[in-house]
Amino acid sequence: MNKILYIIIPGIILMGFGANWVIQKAKNSHDIPIIKQVPEFAFHDQDGIPFNKTRLANKITVLDFMFTSCTGPCPLMSSNMATLYKEFQNVKEVQFVSVTVDPVTDSEDVLKEYADFVGVDDDRWQFIRSDLESTKKLKQGGFMLYAGELPQGHAIKFILLDHNGNIRKYFDGTDDASQAVLRKDIAVLVKELRS
Amino acid sequence: MKSFRIFIYLSTGLTYLLIFIGGMVRVAGAGMGCPDWPKCFGRWIPPTSIEQIPAHIDPSTFNIVLAWIEYCNRLFGAIVGLSITITLFLGLKYYSHIKRIKWSLITAFFLTLFEGWLGAVLVHTVLNPVTITLHLFFALIIVMLLLYASQEVYYLDNPDAERQSKYPSRMQSLFVLLAITLLIEVILGTEIRGGLEMIRKDNPMVDSQFLLDMLGPFKYAHSVLGFLITVLCGLIWYKLVKRSVNPSSLVVQTSTSLLVLIMLQIVSGEVLVFFDVIPLVQLFHLWIASWILGIISVQYCAWKRSSLINE
After folding, report:
1. Is B63 in Cβ contact with A29 (below 8 Å)?
2. Which of A89, A103, B28, B111 is least crowded, fewest Cβ atoms below 10 Å from its Cβ?
């Protein structure tokens, strides 16, 4: 019996180390790769306060491109964004940014009204605007999304950005499956930021 | 005949390893590492890069690490299946006249086929929680059947085993009660684990030590049953070791191991509750439970044999 124990116990310890290695590997495999840096930009939020790249620092950001008078997929995107906004209300590191692709119609006041309409009651969700040229430049050059025909072709993506202003992942802003993954990935990035 | 002995012991050991590996797949979250079955991403050997994924499968489901973890589980499962098949073949060849060996091997074989099929169902139902629990439940039954057959073979080789030993006669209901309680306890345990995963999915920002508080009443049921199991195991140890005449070394050693393993279960269980839900501790907590069940089955057979040959 003692001889068997001499084989079994080291064997089990070895299995423990092996299993631990596998579990860690599996855990790390959920890491989200860095796609690219967001370039510098100079926009304003719905209160007229400058919103540039420094506002992304030390925050996990979910960003989308929309316009308030859009009747296509935007209402669904806004409703999904509002759900996330509510879910993460106790996580101060997470912010939401909606960039209007129709700055002519979407003045500061219109954006402010829209923010009220979707239930924004603090500074965790910003609606930002600039002139059409800068918006196109940010969208196509910065986020690699087609910006030929704004505002109609505004893209239905939610883009996840980390605390260093890196693009980490793109999500479909209209389907539930992507929202579920996004929710998980936000948590991963927040833990990355806190650690 | 020697080859049969090698294979029956080998199959038992490998099945225990497979339970460990299956638990590891579960805690690593690799159950859906391969979205199809029996192939992995349409290939017999999993892809090593995203280009190898066939067009009809969504490439965003590909995670190379998880795919290979799940694939190793399937590969090992196939090896165990093969080993049990050979064991059945040799068992029928040499021992078809001994009903206990014959029927426990035949049952184990068919349950193994059933397990393979359940594995496919698991993938097709995207890890249905009831199926996951059944998958474990039948693995435990298979390992107990194999242990039973191994022990019967051991008694064929050692006909005088348990002849000198005299155990208390009324223990049948104690063993049955303990075995049933243990199986229920394992099922409750998997429910807790499944419940934790659901809560974690819905509340990704909650730290894992608070997750347990969000669970329903079955975490208390698990503790209460655990306490009952501890008492029953203590009682078994007392009867088999202290209230017996000349107990065999197998019975004494398994009784002592039982108490040690129960202690380990209490400690690891408390670690999970009070510190953190650590995957590695979860894995061993489950695996030790399968050992305890095996030990109870071995003790029951030894006790039964002693009462039969000493009648």
Report:
1. yes
2. A89
